[in-house]
Specification:
374 residues; 13-stranded mixed sheet; two-stranded antiparallel sheet; binds iron/sulfur cluster
């Protein structure tokens, strides 16, 4: 079911350069997803998502192993607490395919990574002791790569905690292996049992390109919705995949047609080996805005955001000379809503590539609407 060696793909079997790339960061693709790819086309966007590319080898030193410094928000092995209301549990180091641009590739390079949750009791105790936590994200890796009985245990125990309202499952399974959802009635029952009228399960799906929205993928998302889950989508902006307004716009439109809200478009993180996949922030913003311009209101709900160490920064606007960011969420609550203005740098891939801010507006709404906020 999974292809993990270059030699298993006849069209690439002789590619010694790709073997070398895969020895650094492994190849993994489901046979279902491989069938969606034209392996003879070096520009096939789905191939760029999941098949090794020779440029990774030459540019491996670019980027860092933990670009958002997640380690600094890790309160227990496998549990991150960055924003007051939300914790992230890394419950799995398995995915149904390995994205070449993954920002957590450290989990797959080091299979014994200490970052994956081992002590569920301790994590639940931490959540119980923090009544401000209303959201728990189950991710990794991929939450739906956990066995259904193991997922059942985690969901059931989280549902016993009164102050946890939303449980989010981070997953690319609907794109990489929709059969995992469609053919597991136990999983669908579990989603139904865990989705309450007042306490929802959110599926944080990860479709990068409209071609991933196959009839099976749509069926998988529809099945999850019928069980009461809310399905939203988040995608990074990836060079050669969705860095074209027509493609990104089509993705937004199709998602909205199928009832999946476009939620975030992420600036691709400067993780190790990601140089071939990143798009500079300012170019990305223009692609994102042009794509939104093609869409109806329901299709243009995504925010273009950078998951920085300091928090989630929305890329709000560009002028001739300046770029404007806003703290959508801030690790330090005092920064929430702050607006940062920088001199433009078309080569910037990350906030750190900008010089000092030209201006910081501490009370953003106060500054913009002084007549409302007195
Ligand atoms: S599905 Fe997510 S965690 Fe898994 S390889 Fe892709 S980006 Fe990384």
């Amino acid at each position: 079911m999974f292809i993990t060696k270059i030699g298993q793909i006849p069209a690439l079997a002789e590619r010694e350069d790709l073997r070398k790339v895969a020895s650094r960061y492994p190849l993994k693709v489901s046979s279902y997803y491989l069938d969606l790819i034209d392996v003879h086309d070096p520009h096939d966007p789905l191939a760029r998502i999941v098949l090794p590319h020779q440029d990774e080898f030459w540019e491996w030193e670019w980027g860092s192993i933990d670009p958002s410094k997640e380690g600094e928000y890790t309160v227990l092995e496998g549990l991150q607490h960055k924003y007051d209301s939300t914790v992230l549990m890394l419950i799995s180091n398995q995915c149904a395919g390995l994205c070449r641009y993954c920002f957590r590739k450290r989990l797959f390079i080091n299979k014994k990574s200490p970052e994956v949750l081992k002590d569920l009791d301790a994590a639940l105790r931490y959540i119980k002791e923090h009544p401000e936590i209303t959201n728990v994200i189950l991710s990794g890796g991929d939450a739906l790569m956990l066995s259904t009985p193991k997922l059942r245990e985690i969901l059931a125990r989280l549902r016993e905690i009164q102050h946890v309202h939303i449980i989010r499952l981070g997953t690319k399974v609907p794109a990489y292996l929709p059969q995992r959802i469609i053919s597991d009635q136990d999983l669908l029952n579990l989603i139904q049992e865990s989705s309450w009228p007042t306490k929802k399960i959110y599926i944080m799906a990860h479709f990068d390109h409209p071609r991933e929205l196959t009839p099976l993928a749509i069926q998988a998302c529809h099945s999850l919705m019928r069980c009461g889950a809310v399905v939203v989508n988040q995608t990074p902006l990836i060079r050669g995949v969705n860095d074209d307004p027509q493609v990104l716009g089509e993705l937004f439109k199709k998602l909205s047609f199928y009832g999946i809200a476009p939620y975030y478009v992420f600036q691709c993180r400067p993780a190790l080996g990601n140089r071939p996949y990143v798009v500079p922030i300012e170019e990305g913003y223009q692609i994102f805005e042009a794509a939104r311009g093609l869409c109806s209101g329901l299709a243009k709900r995504a925010r273009f955001t950078m998951s920085h160490f300091l928090g989630k920064l929305e890329i709000l606007a560009l002028t001739e000379e300046q770029i404007i960011f806003k703290f959508h969420r801030a690790a330090d609550n005092r920064n929430t809503g702050k607006i940062l203005v920088y001199e433009r740098n078309p080569e910037a891939y990350w906030l750190d590539d900008y010089a000092k801010p030209l201006a910081v507006h501490p009370l953003a709404y106060d500054t913009l609407f002084p007549s409302i906020y007195v």
